[in-house]
Amino acid sequence: MFLMHNKKENIIPYISNFYSYKYGLNYTFSYININYMKIFYLYFPIYNKELEKLSWDHYLELIKISNSNERNFYYKASVFCNLSSSDMSYLINNNFYSFV
User: Fold this and answer.
1) pLDDT tens-digit profile of 15-34?
2) Which of 7, 30, 53, 91 is the Cys-Cys partner for 96 at CB 3.0 to 4.6 Å?
3) Helix axes 12-23, 31-43, angle to 10 degrees
């Protein structure tokens, strides 16, 4: 069980250690991956069926984009055009959003 921590203290390392101990050491519960999960929730807080159309690799690329309009553009383009994560990554790296 988790002990109560000071609210200012970062709880992600404790969560990572707990689940790594409980389910074994693997990438799923690494500090970095849990941090990505947190950012994913902050950027996409409301669940809908469209979220299932993209893979975790898509979302790992999307959460790196700080501009919400740009992130939504790539999200909608990926869903509408059925882009693979590598195709979407190519568009992001070539700054396709600035041309539209």
Assistant:
1) 888 888 888 777 678 888 88
2) 91
3) 120
